[in-house]
Amino acid sequence: MLRLLTIVACCTAITACTGKTFQRSHCAQELGIAWDELSIAEADGFAGTVSYTKAFGLLTAAKTMQTVENFDRCYQQARDARFYIQESRKGQ
């Protein structure tokens, strides 16, 4: 029984590490793309500036999530930031 529990615990740990590595790469990739888009974005009008500011705030939060290894939330915030970057270009 103890041996079975040990095997199950090891398999669970290996699976968790694999998932975290997958999320880590997606977080880093999405964050990198968003920072690149932000650096070339030109906000159009006041509404565009508001969207640009929202995107910057989300990217800062995503970088924090990456630092504390909350990769799922990092990816979501970086993806949301990319949406606001696109909106800032439209002036919305």
UniProtKB/TrEMBL annotation:
Organism domain of life: Bacteria
Q: What is this protein called?
A: Lipoprotein
